[in-house]
Design goal:
The structure is a single chain. The chain is mainly β and 277 residues long. The protein has three helices and 24 strands. The protein has a single domain, classed as Jelly Rolls, CATH 2.60.120.10. It starts with a strand and ends in a 7-residue tail after the last strand. The protein has a seven-stranded mixed sheet, with no helix packed on it. Strands 2-21-18-23-15-14-13 form a seven-stranded antiparallel sheet. The protein is globular.
């Protein structure tokens, strides 16, 4: 498990492009037949992936990494499938996940195993985990359980559908909030005007980005923004002082996940476009 430490806004302002990518961009997700994990110091977030092709993959923890007997001893887990149909087995019970379906796994689950239904079209599981103070039941969030919000306009090139899956009015969790956003064809902007979350950190995973295209993710305080060029299957870490907004060279999708003080969708501090620098 790789560890990434928190970065303050003053240090961020002096970073080169290489340093920004090293500290805020995760480009090591979705290798076959292994579970890479990144421990981000902010909100003690763990980000990972599982792509089971030749064998099933079990989520495990060591005493050195988590001081725990098993991964979810004191944690909760969100799983989003962005690939072919797969199965997540939790303590012997199987949960099938089609593309863009999610699973919430509550604190105390001992055995979590990932499988693909086809080696030719393997599942690609995005994993996000936060500490949990109590138990909530494992819950499958399919298309019919997803809350969909239509936002934006063609005039501003940001028509998009927000699909809320783990949230305060949906699948219950301790602090995890999770879902994904899909840009309509011909639209490229997400989360504009931007905002920050003083009480929550956030992770963006960009997916369904064609290999020859990219998303330019804008980050930093509203008065001192930078950008990261992001490819398919890469994730960006967003601390509480940073905006998180992007524009693509074509339409795309991104998963978002948050942890922190609350689960309110509207708990954000907006920044007007005219005030961006």
């Amino acid at each position: 498990m790789k560890t990434l430490h928190a970065t303050d806004p003053r240090t961020y302002a002096r970073m080169t492009t290489r340093e920004l990518r090293e500290n805020f961009l995760i480009d090591s997700l979705f290798p076959n037949d292994t579970i890479p994990l990144i421990y981000w110091e902010v909100d003690r977030t763990i980000i990972g992936s599982a792509v089971p092709v030749r064998r099933s993959l079990k989520l495990e923890a060591t005493e050195k990494e988590l001081a725990a007997d098993y991964f979810l001893q004191r944690r909760e887990l969100g799983v989003l499938n962005i690939g072919g149909t797969g199965l997540v087995e939790v303590d012997g019970q199987e949960y099938p996940l089609a593309k863009q379906e999610s699973l919430y796994v509550g604190r105390g689950a001992r055995d979590v195993v990932f499988q693909s239904c086809s080696t030719e079209d393997a599942a690609k599981f995005f994993l996000i985990s936060y500490p949990a103070h109590c138990f909530h039941p494992t819950t499958l969030i399919g298309a019919s359980q997803t809350n969909r919000l239509e936002l934006g306009s063609q005039h501003t090139s940001n028509c998009r559908i927000i699909s809320q899956q783990i949230h305060e009015k949906g699948a219950a969790s301790c602090q995890l909030v999770m879902g994904y956003t899909e840009l309509a064809p011909g639209n490229v902007w997400n989360t504009m005007p931007p905002h920050t979350h003083q009480r929550r950190s956030e992770v963006y995973l960009y997916f369904d980005v064609p290999d020859d295209q990219a998303v330019f993710h804008f980050m930093g305080p509203g008065q001192e923004t930078r950008h990261l060029a992001v490819a398919n299957g890469q994730a960006v870490l967003s601390p509480i002082w940073s905006i998180h907004s992007g524009v693509g060279t074509c339409a795309y999708k991104f998963a978002w996940a948050m942890g922190g003080e609350n689960q309110r969708f509207d708990d954000m501090d907006g920044i007007s476009i005219s005030n961006l620098r």
